[in-house]
Structures are given as C-alpha cells and as structure tokens.
Design goal:
Strand content of chain B: 25-35%
Structural class of chain A: mainly beta
CATH topology of the domain at 51-163 in chain B: Immunoglobulin-like
Distance between the termini of chain B: 63 Å
CATH architecture of chain A: Sandwich
Order of helices and strands of chain B: HHHEEEEEEEEE
Helix content of chain A: under 10%
Number of helices of chain A: 0
Largest interface: A-B, 29 and 35 residues
Distance between the termini of chain A: 43 Å
Oligomer: heterodimer
Number of strands of chain A: 8
Mean pLDDT of chain B: 78
CATH class of the domain at 51-163 in chain B: Mainly Beta
Mean pLDDT of chain A: 93
Number of domains of chain A: 1
Radius of gyration of chain A: 16 Å
Low-confidence stretches of chain A: none
Number of helices of chain B: 3
Number of strands of chain B: 9
Largest sheet of chain B: 6 strands, mixed
Radius of gyration of chain B: 25 Å
CATH class of chain A: Mainly Beta
Chain lengths: 108, 171
C-alpha cells in the first residue's frame, strides 16, 4: 500500500493574515487489534507524530493515537509572516518518515 | 473415444483442506441485526475504556491542573453512521498573543478501546486556536477536549455523539 501525502497551502497571503493549512496522509493507521480475514492480528502501524515546520521552525505538532481515523487529516492555522517553505512530516511506528513541502508567497 | 473421466470432476481432485470459516467471514455472510449485535462483541480480549480511564489520561497529560469549564468549543455531529470517520473541530477562545495563547489541546474519548485520541501543540504564531481532524468513535459517547493555556490554566469542553448501528436503522 502506498502512502501518499497531500497538503493544501495557500499560494499567496498578505502579511499578518491567518491562513489555514491542511494535511492528509493516505495511511491505514492500524491499531493492532484488528484481525484480517485469515484471523491473524494485523500488526500495529500508526502515524504517531505529525510536525509542520515553516523555514525549519516548528509551528504545529500533533501526537496521534489509535483514536485518529485512517488517512489522518489535520487542518490548522498559522499567521503568514514572510515568503517561505512549509515542511510537513509524518512519523510512522516502524521508523518510516514521510515528508512533503509547499511554498507560500507573502505579498502586500 | 469417450472421455472416461467421471462427470463429477471434483471427486478426482485431492481432498481439499478443511477450510475453517472465521467468525468474521461468517459475520460478513450473515448480515442483518444478528450481525450488528455480534459485531459489538468483536475484538475479544480488548476491554473498552471508561470515563474514569479518560479522566486518568487527562490528568496525566495536564499534570493534574484543575480543569475549568468554558472557552473550548467542539463541533461534532450529534448522530453519525460512520463512527470511525467522525469529523471533529476544536476551537478555543484565545487572543493567541505571546502573553496569552493556547499551548496544547488534548482530545480523549470516554468509551473507546483506548481513551487517547490526539494532542495538538500550538503557539502564538498559530493566529487562531482551531484544529480540525477526523477521529474514531467506537460507540455513542462523550468526547472531551482540554486546552492548556500559556498561563498554566486548563479549560475543558465536551461533546456527545451517537453512533448508529448501521444495520438498517435499528441502531
């Protein structure tokens, strides 16, 4: 199963504007309790942490547990200060890391 | 020449292994109300959490700070048929300045298998203390959100969602 990150960041914003950032990762978020059709337990495989950085400065962090749905979706806000790059990072249980970047232009 | 194979070709095949139907397959084939009732008893060996467990988790997350009511607004459907994909929006009344902002928002479910749902960490640069996500709700229950402020206080908000059985309206 492929894990695909998707993010939505406004292309342009005014200085001081509060913008919404949205991030979704296509991921099963296995809890470790589910059984497959053969009756075997499906091993736990979750995204445990999500971090959003702007110019290498952390602006939002989320600790996700088994109560978060498959394909974890997050929508949050930040204040636009300067043109720069957002980096979205998802950390999986097995040590895999998924990253996606997006740029936002801040113009008067 | 006449084909001498017996008509019942299955008889020639080696005896197939006994295929044990799992309970889940039987359930999938069964359908109906019996299915829904049995599904509630699935996940053997995994006990459901109670509101007390949720309080304990919150106390650990907030390090025992007394929780005050208000300031936390939760948007959650009153009724849902898709418990594992329930939209949740948590918003906290806060100016989000350097002196007065929301540091963290913790979400717990009172009657899921495990109360922990998610924790979000914000700061003054967030501009707006609002987070939207999708959560798993195993059965009808209260979802609790706690906001930790920069001055050390903590505010609590609750919302209740009813999960329909999805077995033709008998939930």
């Amino acid at each position: 199963m492929t894990v695909t990150p998707k993010v939505k960041v406004p292309a342009r914003a005014k200085p001081g504007e509060v913008v919404m950032l949205r991030a979704m990762l296509k991921h099963p978020m296995e809890t470790g309790w589910r059984e497959n059709t053969a009756g075997e337990k499906v091993p736990r495989n979750r995204i445990h942490t999500f971090i959003c950085e702007f110019q290498d400065q952390e602006i939002f962090r989320a600790d996700l547990h088994s109560g978060v749905s498959a394909d974890p979706y997050l929508a949050f806000f930040t204040t636009a200060s300067a043109t720069g790059k957002f980096r979205f990072t998802w950390f999986e249980d097995g040590g895999n890391v998924y990253t996606k970047t997006a740029t936002m232009e801040v113009i008067q | 020449m006449r084909d001498k194979r017996p008509l019942n070709r299955l008889a020639l095949e080696p005896e197939t292994e006994h295929v044990a139907l799992t309970r889940r397959q039987v359930l999938a084939a069964g359908g109906g109300a019996a299915c829904a009732v049995a599904a509630l008893a699935s996940w053997p060996g995994v006990a459901l959490a109670t509101p007390k467990d949720a309080q304990a988790v919150l106390a650990e997350l907030t390090k025992g700070v007394p929780l005050q009511k208000g300031r936390v607004r939760m948007t959650l459907p009153a009724l849902t048929e898709r418990g594992p994909f329930t939209r949740l929006v948590v918003a906290v009344d806060s100016p989000m300045t350097v002196d007065d902002h929301v540091k963290a928002i913790h979400i717990v479910a009172e009657r899921n298998t495990v109360p922990d749902v998610a924790s979000f960490y914000l700061g003054p640069h967030s501009g707006l203390a609002q987070v939207a996500t999708r959560i798993r709700i195993k059965q009808s229950q209260n979802i609790v959100a706690v906001a930790q402020m920069s001055d050390g206080t903590a505010y609590v908000g609750r919302a209740r969602t009813k999960v329909l059985g999805g077995a033709g309206g008998c939930g």
